[in-house]
Amino acid sequence: MVVIVDYDAGNLKSVARACREVGLPAEISNDAKRIREAERVIFPGVGAAGSAMRSLAASGVDRALVDAFGAGTPILGICLGLQISLEYSEENDTATLGLLPGKVRRFRLDDPNLKVPHMGWNAVRVIRPHPIFDGVQRGDEFYFVHAYRPIPEEPADAIAESVYEGPFCSALGRGNYVATQFHPEKSGRAGLRLLKRFAEWDGRADA
Amino acid sequence: MLSKRLIACLDVRDGHLAKSVRFVDTKNIGDPVAKAREYYLDGLDELVFYDITASSEKRRIILDVVESVAEQVFIPLSVGGGVASVSDATDLRLAGAEKINVNSAAVRRPALIAECAESIGGQNVVLSMDIKRAEPSTDMPSGYEIVINGGRKPMGIDALAWAKEGERLGAGELVVNSIDADGTREGYELNLTRMLSEAVRIPVIASGGAGEPGHLYDVLTDGKADAALVASMVHYGDYTVSGLKRHLHEKGVKMRMSW
After folding, report:
1. Which residues in chain B are closer than 8 Å to A9, comparing Cβ atoms?
2. d(Cα A70, Cα A78) in Å, to the nearest integer?
């Protein structure tokens, strides 16, 4: 059973449906207690950093996530979930959870032909082997939609990168926490395979 | 770098694929859910449902369609047709749509774009524009005019100005649907698509006029579109999603080729 963290009015059902598709029963909850006791947690992406942090603080889920991280619960962050697990986001000038050191900045691109948000399918290059990326094939692409990009402070926390004008970090993690900037629940079968591996992951980072 | 996207659009009326589209004679006739699943398994990058249900009491049906599709199609799902309020958008989002297309109602009341962007995130708001050629004038400098109600009602609004206004109000993406090219199968309107794509910094989806694979190539290269929308080309059974993607890939367009 995975608990999908509920905050703001978002489209969390797509994450829940994708989990069920790979045989992982899912519950959507904003109950701090449920999150502390969860077997595994998905911290998905909806809305903007500022309102997300306010909503997490109001329900006490911010502290529950920090506790679950400390307790060794396997946690998967997705999109905004990844971004607010770092320390600071330029979006709404927001102090965020700080599970890992790093910050989030808006894409600033020189090429006027490149659009922001970075929206669509892009390749992901694994730079540090990780169990949930095990078996990602050359040519597999994942669905992204975001205007801000994560910059982990510790290079060792970066798991994968993608290219949009230049390279940017598209997955990161440490210990029992792993996160993708792309949406595995919207990334066809490549995304479902990644969710399946998360469902089986014991929370240890060694591949 | 980003791949170009192939998007299929399904028109749905009262929960069935619209009769205006002549589907091949299979037992899946009329079932939008089966069609969506088929395209997904064949490598489609994104799916659009356009609800053309006329009566408002039957509008709940599209929510059931979206719900069923979202259960079994794991790519972005965009829904439009008659969205006039944040509450319409929210209902569709809760049913499983990622993106919401706004069209006529946004022309009548532009604040709808900003309200939806504020509520569901600008990246999920698609401004769909029906556009017709017009005599260039001081009021219509681009020579393209916005029309609504399925192309029947000209609005006296310049398409280029409206695209920029839509971006300013917070739309995350534009659909450029050429009423002149729509249904001709003679190709997308390249000049229009290129002009709008160069004028905004949000992605542009080209729509209307595709009849053969070369048309997709043209609009994704010369037309500077980020995505090409097809309907009858794949619905009639003349082409497959994977076949179109392979064609584009072989001609050097970056496409997602693994699914």
Report:
1. 90, 119
2. 19
Q: Which of B2, B67, B198, B200 to mutate to test the interface with A (most CBs of A within 10 A)?
A: B2
Using the Cβ of A146 and the Cβ atoms of chain B, whether some distance falls under 8 Å is answered with yes
Amino acid at B143: G
Using the structure block, give the residue that is written with the tokens 């297309």.
B101
Cis before A117 (ω within 30):
yes
Q: Both tokens of residue B184?
A: 């001709």
Residue B241 CB neighbour total at 10 angstroms:
21
Residue B89 CA to residue B79 CA, distance in Å, equals 9
Q: Contact, B33 vs B65, CB < 8 A?
A: yes
Contact A186 B74 (CB under 8 A): yes
Distance CA B77, CA B91 (A): 14
Query: Cα–chain-centroid distance for residue A188?
Result: 17
Q: Residue B157's closest CA among B117, B223, B166, B188?
A: B166
Write the CB contacts of A178 (distance below 8 Å, at least 6 apart in sequence): A74, A75, A76, A77, A130, A132, A159, A171, A172, A198, A201, A205
What confidence tens digit (pLDDT) does each residue in B198-227 have? 999 999 999 999 999 999 999 999 999 999
Write out the catalytic residue numbers of A.
Answer: 79, 183, 185
CA distance B173 to B166: 9
Residue B171: pLDDT band (50, 70, 90) is: very high
DSSP secondary structure string for all residues of B180-230: TTTTT-S---HHHHHHHHHH-SS-EEEES---SHHHHHHHHHTT--SEEEE
A193: helix, strand or coil? helix
Interchain CB contact of B94 with A (< 8 Å): yes
Out of B71, B98, B121, the one facing A17 most closely (by C-beta) is B71
Backbone angles phi, psi at B236, to 5 degrees: -70, -15
Q: Is A110 on the interface with B (CB under 8 A)?
A: no
What token pair was written down for A180? 């993708």
Q: Tens digit of pLDDT for each residue in A59-83?
A: 999 999 999 999 999 999 999 999 9
